[in-house]
Amino acid sequence: MTTQARMFARSARSVGRAREFVAGVVVDAGDRADDIRVCVSELATNALRHTPVGRRFLVRVAVEPDVVEVEVHDAGGGEPHVCSPADTDDHGRGLLLVEALADDWGTSDRSGPGKSVWATFKVPQAKPVTARDA
Protein backbone atom coordinates (compact mmCIF):
# COMPACT_ATOMS: atom_id res chain seq x y z
CA MET A 1 0.00 0.00 0.00
CA THR A 2 1.17 3.50 -0.83
CA THR A 3 -0.08 6.44 1.24
CA GLN A 4 0.46 10.13 0.59
CA ALA A 5 -0.92 13.10 2.49
CA ARG A 6 -0.97 16.85 2.12
CA MET A 7 -2.21 19.76 4.20
CA PHE A 8 -4.37 22.45 2.59
CA ALA A 9 -5.15 26.00 3.65
CA ARG A 10 -8.67 27.01 4.54
CA SER A 11 -9.23 28.55 1.11
CA ALA A 12 -11.69 27.95 -1.73
CA ARG A 13 -8.71 27.27 -4.03
CA SER A 14 -7.76 24.33 -1.84
CA VAL A 15 -10.71 22.25 -3.04
CA GLY A 16 -9.33 22.09 -6.58
CA ARG A 17 -5.81 21.60 -5.27
CA ALA A 18 -6.96 18.67 -3.12
CA ARG A 19 -8.70 17.13 -6.12
CA GLU A 20 -5.55 17.54 -8.26
CA PHE A 21 -3.38 16.11 -5.48
CA VAL A 22 -5.45 12.92 -5.25
CA ALA A 23 -5.69 12.58 -9.04
CA GLY A 24 -1.91 12.90 -9.19
CA VAL A 25 -1.44 10.09 -6.67
CA VAL A 26 -3.84 7.59 -8.25
CA VAL A 27 -2.83 6.26 -11.65
CA ASP A 28 -5.10 4.17 -13.89
CA ALA A 29 -8.31 4.62 -11.89
CA GLY A 30 -10.22 3.96 -15.11
CA ASP A 31 -13.93 4.63 -14.95
CA ARG A 32 -13.67 5.40 -11.19
CA ALA A 33 -11.42 8.45 -11.70
CA ASP A 34 -14.34 10.88 -11.99
CA ASP A 35 -16.08 9.34 -8.96
CA ILE A 36 -12.92 9.80 -6.89
CA ARG A 37 -12.46 13.41 -8.03
CA VAL A 38 -16.09 14.34 -7.28
CA CYS A 39 -15.92 12.78 -3.82
CA VAL A 40 -12.63 14.50 -2.99
CA SER A 41 -14.20 17.81 -4.04
CA GLU A 42 -17.23 17.23 -1.83
CA LEU A 43 -15.22 16.09 1.20
CA ALA A 44 -12.74 18.95 0.83
CA THR A 45 -15.60 21.45 0.49
CA ASN A 46 -17.14 20.12 3.70
CA ALA A 47 -13.78 20.35 5.46
CA LEU A 48 -13.39 23.90 4.24
CA ARG A 49 -16.82 24.82 5.61
CA HIS A 50 -16.17 23.21 9.00
CA THR A 51 -12.49 23.97 9.59
CA PRO A 52 -12.05 26.85 12.04
CA VAL A 53 -10.49 30.03 10.68
CA GLY A 54 -6.71 29.82 10.79
CA ARG A 55 -6.65 26.01 10.64
CA ARG A 56 -5.83 23.75 7.71
CA PHE A 57 -7.29 20.43 6.60
CA LEU A 58 -5.50 17.22 5.66
CA VAL A 59 -6.14 14.99 2.66
CA ARG A 60 -4.70 11.48 2.74
CA VAL A 61 -4.95 8.97 -0.09
CA ALA A 62 -4.02 5.30 0.17
CA VAL A 63 -3.68 3.16 -2.94
CA GLU A 64 -3.78 -0.64 -2.76
CA PRO A 65 -3.91 -2.97 -5.76
CA ASP A 66 -7.72 -3.04 -5.72
CA VAL A 67 -8.87 -0.16 -3.50
CA VAL A 68 -8.35 3.58 -3.22
CA GLU A 69 -9.17 5.19 0.12
CA VAL A 70 -9.41 8.94 0.53
CA GLU A 71 -9.55 10.59 3.96
CA VAL A 72 -10.19 14.26 4.68
CA HIS A 73 -9.38 15.45 8.20
CA ASP A 74 -10.59 18.73 9.65
CA ALA A 75 -10.55 20.35 13.07
CA GLY A 76 -14.24 21.25 13.02
CA GLY A 77 -16.84 19.88 15.36
CA GLY A 78 -19.98 17.97 14.55
CA GLU A 79 -20.74 14.61 13.02
CA PRO A 80 -21.18 14.55 9.22
CA HIS A 81 -24.47 13.10 8.04
CA VAL A 82 -26.38 12.74 4.80
CA CYS A 83 -28.94 15.52 4.43
CA SER A 84 -32.27 15.65 2.63
CA PRO A 85 -32.11 19.08 1.02
CA ALA A 86 -35.09 20.72 -0.63
CA ASP A 87 -34.87 21.33 -4.36
CA THR A 88 -34.29 25.03 -3.66
CA ASP A 89 -31.47 24.51 -1.13
CA ASP A 90 -28.04 25.57 -2.35
CA HIS A 91 -26.10 23.11 -0.18
CA GLY A 92 -26.51 19.78 1.56
CA ARG A 93 -25.88 17.39 -1.32
CA GLY A 94 -22.19 16.61 -0.83
CA LEU A 95 -22.54 13.47 1.24
CA LEU A 96 -25.45 12.32 -0.94
CA LEU A 97 -22.97 12.34 -3.83
CA VAL A 98 -20.29 10.59 -1.77
CA GLU A 99 -22.81 7.94 -0.69
CA ALA A 100 -23.87 7.39 -4.31
CA LEU A 101 -20.39 7.32 -5.88
CA ALA A 102 -18.13 5.66 -3.28
CA ASP A 103 -18.27 1.97 -2.47
CA ASP A 104 -18.22 2.86 1.22
CA TRP A 105 -17.78 5.96 3.35
CA GLY A 106 -17.82 6.95 6.98
CA THR A 107 -16.21 8.94 9.73
CA SER A 108 -13.43 8.20 12.18
CA ASP A 109 -12.18 9.85 15.32
CA ARG A 110 -8.71 11.26 15.25
CA SER A 111 -6.24 12.50 17.80
CA GLY A 112 -6.87 16.17 18.48
CA PRO A 113 -9.95 18.14 17.56
CA GLY A 114 -12.22 17.29 14.66
CA LYS A 115 -12.79 14.18 12.63
CA SER A 116 -11.81 12.25 9.55
CA VAL A 117 -14.29 11.54 6.76
CA TRP A 118 -13.26 8.75 4.40
CA ALA A 119 -14.45 7.14 1.20
CA THR A 120 -13.30 3.94 -0.47
CA PHE A 121 -13.42 2.96 -4.13
CA LYS A 122 -12.91 -0.47 -5.67
CA VAL A 123 -10.43 0.13 -8.48
CA PRO A 124 -8.85 -3.14 -9.65
CA GLN A 125 -6.37 -1.43 -11.94
CA ALA A 126 -5.29 1.40 -9.60
CA LYS A 127 -1.60 2.02 -9.15
CA PRO A 128 0.14 4.67 -7.06
CA VAL A 129 2.55 7.07 -8.67
CA THR A 130 6.07 5.85 -8.04
CA ALA A 131 9.37 7.70 -8.17
CA ARG A 132 9.91 6.27 -11.67
CA ASP A 133 6.52 7.63 -12.85
CA ALA A 134 6.99 11.14 -11.48
Please explain how this structure is put together.
There is one protein chain. It is built from three helices and seven strands, in the order βαβαββαβββ. Strands 1-3-4-6-5 form a five-stranded antiparallel beta sheet, with helices on one face. The mean pLDDT is 86.
Q: Tell me the quaternary state.
A: single chain
**Which strands sit side by side, in order, in the main sheet?**
1-3-4-6-5
Strand count, sense and closure of the main sheet?
Answer: 5 strands, antiparallel
SS class: alpha+beta
Helix content: 25-40%
* DSSP strand tally: 7
Distance between the termini: 17 Å
Present the secondary structure layout.
Blueprint: E1 2-8, H1 13-25, E2 26-27, H2 33-50, E3 57-63, E4 67-74, H3 94-101, E5 104-108, E6 115-122, E7 127-128
Antiparallel strand pairs: 1-3, 2-7, 3-4, 4-6, 5-6
Helix pairs in contact: 1-2, 2-3
Short description:
The chain is of the alpha+beta class. The protein has helices at residues 13-25, 33-50, 94-101; strands at 2-8, 26-27, 57-63, 67-74, 104-108, 115-122, 127-128.
Features:
134 residues, two-stranded antiparallel ribbon, five-stranded antiparallel beta sheet, single chain, alpha+beta
